[in-house]
Structure formats: structure tokens, C-alpha cells
Amino acid sequence: MTYNYQNNSDTFIIIHLNIEGERMSVSGYAYSYARVMSRMSDILSEGRLKDLMVMGTKDDFISSLMDTTYKEKLTKAPSTDLRNIELALKGELIDQYLMVLRSTRGKVNAFFEEHFRRFEVKNLKAVIIAKATGAITEEPLFFPVEDFFGRNMGGLMDADSMKDLIMRLENPYKRVLEAVLLEYEARKKALILESALYQDLCGAIWARMTGLGPKDRAIVRKIIGTEFDIINITTLLRCRAAGIEAAEMTKYFLPYSYSFDFNTDNVNASMSAEDASTVVQLLPPSAYKEVLMGAISEYEEEKSLIPFERALRNLFSDTIKNTLRGAPINIGTIIGFLYLKELEIKNLCSISVCKENDLSAEETMGIVML
């Protein structure tokens, strides 16, 4: 806040309005902040996650989880098979979002509701990929968000074609996917549909972010903007690996960023690079390039993009943890908690899969992101 000490009533009014604006902003999430702080201690420490990774069997892993906040969900699960464990864990994540949505209001609530819609998009993406690739062995494991949004996605796997699937959807998804259906039918690339979904979702999230107060907007822009930067860099790496030409590749980038400019000569050159290593080396200097450079040797050994994707996810995790330092009374603590919870549940699902497939603790540690 900038104070002007001229002795007149207009200046006093300006200062007063600024203070009231900040109070109104904080009041939009004060109750939610208190509820989040009461749950922050439930986040599993790095040491606790490592303990879970070295558990001998899946049953040992589940038994140990019974000493955590996941006990209630796991106890209610009909069985301890892999699908039911994952569904129980996803249900716990959704409960945390619903807690935030019930305890916020106004523009803060509107932002979190749009952000929550990511899980509905993830559900739809899983169906689209399954239908497009023909890799249909069983129903995808949905995040339980249907009751909140009121959009029925049941039965989509029974659709005869992608067109039939899209026609069964409700807006905004029907409208968004119909717009690119002809292109998809001509080229049969699931990326066309995925990109359309995420362009729409991320645009809506960005719009809600810009409606927040100045301080909240700056905090959220850093977090969301970093995530969008990482999505774009990951898209670049995947497109290059798939042999997609630069002219087409640009269609799949999100038009939003935080600290990575896709309009530089370096990035344009990287789009035509021979392989992922060269893509990374040609990128302009940034925190993203720094962590990617550190993963090149692992990429060369594995010939997989996973080391690069893991490096970027670790960078995003560090961004979240830095936002949470000191538990400031602002929107960053709430969104940071939700992202940490999401990361934790991804890790627990990964550990569960590793236990189901008898992977060693060392192999599991190579998959889980701490």
C-alpha cells in the first residue's frame, strides 16, 4: 500500500478504501484459512512417505495408512484392491476441495470452483484417451465430482464413436470439443481434443484469477502461472518427441505464462531441435532450463521424458512449499495446501501401485516425488 501524507480528506478516503479492500479480500477466505491450518499437520512428512515406501507388502502399506487421516475413507472402501484404494484416496482429496469451497465466498470462491473443475476435466480426458487409443480394459477411475457439478459423465465409455461421446456431453465440454471434432476425425490425434479442453479450462481459471484482489492475484498468478509454464514446456517436449512440426506445435501451447516467454528466438529454435536434449539446451535461461539441464543425463540413459517431467514437477513442488513458508494469512496458504494434498495422494497412489506389483523400495523411490 502506498501512503500519501498530504493533509486532505481525499487522501484519507483513498487510504481508507485500500485498507477496506484488503480487509474484504482477507474476509473472503479467513474461515477457510483457519480450517486449512487445522489440517496442515495431517500432511505426511517426507520421512513418513519414505517409511510407507519401505513397507514390505501392500497390506503393510494399507495398515500403516490406517494411522493417518485416510483411515476413514479406507475403512469405508469395499475392499483393499488397487482400484478401491485409489478411489478412497481421490475421495479424500475431493473432500478437502469441498471444505475450501464451503468456507470461501465471493471472487475467492469463484476462483476455487473453477480450479476445482480441473478434476472434471481429468475425468473426461481419461475417457477420451481410452476411446482414442482403444486401450479400454476397465472403466477409468474418476474423481468423485459429479454431485458437485451436476454433469453426468456416466456411460461415456459405451459411446460408439468419439462423435457420439461428444454429443452426450453437456456444456462447456460439448461446445469446446464440437469445435475441434472435424479436425480430430481427419487426423485422429487425441492431443487435439486434450488441448481444446485445457485451453478452455486454463482460460477460465486465468479469468477468475484476474478478478481477485491485487495481493491475491499476484500470489495466485505466480502459482498458476508457473504451472502453466510447466504445462507448455512439457507440451513442447512431448510434441518434439512425437515429431510434431513447430507450426502445428504452437497450437497446443496455452496463451498464458508467468516467467517463460514462448516468443523468443531460443524457443522457436528449440521447436525444431533433433531431440529432447537439444530442446532443453536451446531454451532461454530460466529456472525451468536449470532443472531440465540437470535431468539430461538421466534422459539419455532412459530415453524417456519422465526424468524431465519429474524435474519440472519437483520445481513446482518447491514453488508451493516456498509459498507456504511461515503460513502467511493469504490465499497462497489455501491453494498451497490443496496442491500439497494433491501431490501427496498422487504419491500414495504410486506407492500402492508399486506394492501391488512387488517393486522394491529403491524402485518406488525413483517414482515417488518428495
The third-level CATH topology of the domain at 214-325 is V-type ATP synthase subunit C fold
User: Regions with pLDDT < 50 over 5+ consecutive residues?
Assistant: 1-24
Question: CATH class of the domain at 214-325, anyone?
Answer: Mainly Alpha
Binned strand content = under 5%
Helix share bin: 55-70%
For the record, give the distance between the C-alpha atoms at the N and C termini, rounded to a whole number.
Answer: 37 Å
Judging from the principal axes of the Cα atoms, what is the shape?
globular
Structure description:
By secondary structure, the protein is mostly helical. It has a domain at 214-325: Up-down Bundle (V-type ATP synthase subunit C fold), CATH 1.20.1690. 69% of the residues lie in helices and 0% in strands. It contains 22 helices and no strands. It has helices spanning 9-27, 30-40, 46-53, 58-65, 71-76, 82-102, 106-116, 118-133, 146-149, 162-168, 173-178, 181-187, 190-210, 214-241, 246-249, 265-270, 276-282, 287-293, 296-302, 306-324, 331-356, 361-365. α6 packs antiparallel against α7 and α7 runs antiparallel to α13. The longest helix has 28 residues, at 214-241. The radius of gyration is 22 Å and the shape is globular. The two termini are 37 Å apart. 29% of the residues are buried. Residues 1-24 have low confidence and may be disordered.
